[in-house]
Amino acid sequence: MTRALKRFLIKESIRKINSEGNPFYSEVLLGKEESHHLKNVLRVNQSEKCLILDPKGNEFIGEVQSFRDDGQCEIRVLEKTSGSSPLAFKLTVAQAIPQNRKMDIIVEKAAELGVNALIPLITERTIVRLPKEKTEKVVERWQRIANQTVKQSRQRIIPEICDITNFRALWTDEKRFGEVIVLHPEPASVLLCESLFSSLRSDKELKKKFLFVIGPEGGFSGREIEFAKSKRTKIASLGEGLLKTDTAFVVAVGLFKLWSFQTNDG
After folding, report:
1. Among 46, 34, 26, which Cα is nearest to 10's?
2. CA R_g for the chain
């Protein structure tokens, strides 16, 4: 039985280089942390093959060339692996930070499900409040969790874990998203799946980038919902009943991925 190749992440995109009209790939350097994992944890030896994934989601088969004195590893890129074409629609989720380190699990699920970016969110009813001096280290830890999950899950999308943001600040740069949908279980809300299909029917070309906004366990305040509505934001629900915030994340992203696959095929 063939052993599955181990996967490692590199920080720069791999470019195809032309030499005398013949395409080939250059050698790349694996960072110190990934090199340590390759050499000392997984015991991958020189001349052995591995998989490398760049920030754009391109995966290649590589061969270990040498271990450098500075702690980095040289890998020769052999060929690009085949894979499914990327989905036309991209998803960012602004997720209110839940209690009891549930955000760690949400970060894992974001990586497993192929979310493009995750914005840790502070709302009026968010209980977790991190001191400013700790936020950078916490976000870095979440990014490490996302990176490790991508390597294990074989996803090609590496979620960007953004800086912690407050609710109203989401709309300071809303134009970068074609559609913003706040998930809130009010009686007048349309179902999320209906909202997605209506977005596609109204303007398929411009609404390639979606932002889902998911609140804390206590939900969004009335002021926050009114503010979102004043920005012409869609309000959608996930059906009857109340879901925990981490459950709502998985359901919403799962519906989006299913809708994306169906739309791609259509």
Report:
1. 34
2. 21
Look up tokens 């303007």; give the residue: 203
Amino acid at 129: R
What's the pTM value of the predicted model, to 2 decimals?
0.85
Yes or no: say if 50 and 75 are a contact pair by the CB < 8 Å rule: yes
Structural domains of the chain in order of their starting residue, each with its CATH number: 7-80 (2.40.240.20), 90-265 (3.40.1280.10)
Tell me the pLDDT tens digit for each residue of 202-258. Answer: 555 545 889 999 999 889 999 999 999 999 899 999 988 889 999 999 999 999 988
232: left (phi over 0), alpha (psi -120 to 50) or beta: left
Residues 5, 49 contacting (CB under 8 angstroms): yes
Q: Please give the structure tokens belonging to residue 93.
A: 């989720």
- 129: CB partners within 8 A, 6+ apart: 122
Q: What is the dihedral of CA 99, 130, 220, 179, to 10 degrees?
A: -110
